[in-house]
Amino acid sequence: MKNKQIRIRKGLTINLKGKPSAVVENLGRSSHYAVKPTSFLGVNPRLYVQPGDKVKAGDKLFYSKYVPQVHVSSPVSGTVKEIVRGKRRVILRVVIEADAEDTYVEFTPKEATREDVLQTLLHSGLFAYIKQRPYDITANPADKPKAIYIPAYDTSPLAPDYNFGLTNERKAFEKGVEILGKLTDGKVYVTADGESSTMFDDIPGAETLKIYGPHPAGNVSVAIAHTLPISQGDRIWVVNPWDVVIMGRLFLTGRYDATKHVAFTGPLFKEPRYYKVKQGAYLKDAIGDLLKRKDHVRLVSGNPLTGTNITEDGFLDVFDNSITALSDEPKARFFGWLPFLGESRKTVYRLNADWWSNKERELDTALYGEERPFVMTEEIEEVMPLDIFPVQLLKACLTGNVDRMEQLGILEVAPEDFALVDYISSSKINAQNIIRNGLDIMMVEIG
Amino acid sequence: MKALHKFLKKYEHLFLEGGKYHKLHPAYQAFYTFLYTPEMVTEKGAHIRSSVDLKRIMITVVIALIPATIFGIWNVGHQHFVQLGQDPGFWGKFLFGARYVIPMIIVSYVVGLGIEFWFAIKRGHEVNEGYLVTGLLIPLIMPATIPLWILAVSVAFAVIFGKEVFGGTGMNIVNPALTARAFAFFSYPATMSGNTVWVPGAAQSDAISGETILGMLAQGKHAAWTWWDMFLGTIPGSVGETSVLMILIGLAILLFTKVGSWRIVLSGLLGGITMGLIFNAWGANTLMQFPWWQHLMVGGFAFGLTFMATDPVTAAQTNRGKWIYGFLIGLLAIMIRTLNPAYPEGVMLAILLMNVVAPTIDYFVVEANVKKRMKRVATLEKQ
């Protein structure tokens, strides 16, 4: 069968220094692991455990107040060390002090029917790794999705290459696709790089979408828009490739084995490459020796556009498959606004000395200006490949106009689709936050 | 430069919360960020950002205006001396023009920025860079002989009522520079139109005929200049609007850097050509017979289309909307100046009118997208 091709024109590929080379190393075991309930959007956590409790890999840590069947399990075995709370007692993370070696909860996976698969995923806590569109939140087991998408081609800057990382996990991945297929009457779609042949081109039970074009071509919203555009009431599920592998392992071995390859990327790593680690690992100490320097470093779990700042806590987010280290040194730049002078960063304008080149660049976290109201609106459309009006949608989100947001297509987007807007915006707008807030308002109002 | 930065940082605490001059912080911040791109790092959203901010964009527009400004200064002198039959040389003309134009630029910036700073301090906002462009645009679209107090009042009106009452740069409905011109034009018509305002000295000396081409055509006279004069800009008119050549240089900068919208410029040009051709075919009077391609070179057409129709805040904000917006500006500009000879100011009125209409254009463009989406929902619900 010929794979469907998806081609987009609008966008911007940001070429950064520090791409991971195709090498995998063992990082060894971290002393601590953490699960952050805040990563599971839409899950209002209620704890199963308290400090001092012993847990095995696969034991329940917390469940969702509104959908109690959905719970999140411990990726390792050990002792619950602390429950870190933030403002208004929000649970920030459940920290587990790891045993020297993992002991696992032994599940007996059943896969005969949809209900069997669903129950197995719910029991093991892996269901929580399924995300739902619209809203980009944790899926609800009561829903039956129209289709399931696995975004296996990431076009973000410094993104991990799943085609490399999953080569040795093909069996588990195929198993994962197979069981996911039972959860939907529709198709399981896997995205893959259009420019080269990949292991995702022929996965039994899945339809491959070959993706062409600049970032955000790899975003799952683009794939959905070209196959099954979302409307009110639709449910589409999205599962990260590594989580598909972990689900596959569960059905093959009965164990929740959260091991995956995490790309250590960015200009500050001496040797950017992949490391074998488990979900939620505490990486700050281990990373310290791998960096070129120790001061003024920002650690990001995920890629530099959509990732979360973990400089403080040092725990890899359970959903992320990469860690990025960026230079984080506040610098004043003399007449930094003069066109064609100073540092050159790829953008939609030709206002840099070498605007034509898309050579690898070493960007730091400089904001490069102050926040302003919307002025240059064309730049935003330049990086928006979806059939929506991004400026108008952002404004509707800012004013909290639910009807207008829906009319303008908020159900078709996720904050990550506006990451490039953050990047190119000359008004330094935080578009991802605006969209997240808009989605949260929608959820409360419509559900 | 380190020493300067140290010096600024040393006194920063005076302007921060609890400092002696806390209220003046926006002024300090504006000055500091003019010298230095601030030492801020990303806190929310994407961790990396491009190096383009509004300051860089606005400065690019100012750079694009420089050729027209310099030529305008020279041309003010040139018009004066040519009509007197004298030739004091390039510098003689330039210095004569500078005596008129430089004070205008100073007044525009001092009054405009003064008001902006005042609003910023009152509101505790940062000073926005929008006025960098507006402040130079205003003198360039005024006659060189305008009394400076009228200029000051127009600037004040434009900044306060054209912009700040709406919330500042990014929130305004109509182009502030054109607001200033429209205000002066309707409040002080004697200083803004007629045959004595365009060339300094025209009111005092009979030897000088300071009529613009559009003014002559409106009276049924034929243009006293060749198309080459119009292209080079050695004709009377507002300070910066005369030279198509210099405006083209500015346009090239705007389009090359992608700061200006090519959609608006191209569609505006098409609109102007369309209307020009229609009138040429009609040919009822001198204005209508004036060749369509020369229409594009006289008056404020080239200048307005390049620097004011492309103002991203007041233009249509959707790409399809920009085509309609630009086309109608071109069409209306030529229509107004031809059909109503009392208003050779067609371009100004056309842009102001379209500024007001732009949100409506956008509304219909966006609505088409919304309808498409709602239709999809409706068909799905039927299934």
Structural notes for this entry:
The complex is a heterodimer of chains A (447) and B (383). With 447 residues, chain A is α/β, with parallel strands linked by helices. In chain A, 21% of the residues lie in helices and 21% in strands. Chain A folds into three domains: 13-105 and 262-330, no CATH class; 114-121 and 141-255, 3-Layer(aba) Sandwich (Rossmann fold), CATH 3.40.50; 378-445, no CATH class. Chain A has a seven-stranded mixed beta sheet. In chain A, strand 8 (78-85) and strand 9 form a beta hairpin. In chain A, helix 3 (170-181) packs across helix 5 and helix 8 packs across helix 11. Chain A is globular and about 65 Å long. Chain B has one domain. Chain B starts with a helix and ends with a helix. Helices cover 66% and strands 1% of the residues of chain B. Chain B is an all-alpha fold and 383 residues long. Classes of the chains: A alpha/beta (447), B mainly alpha (383). Chains A and B meet through strand 21, helix 10 and helix 11 of A and strand 1, helix 3 and helix 17 of B.
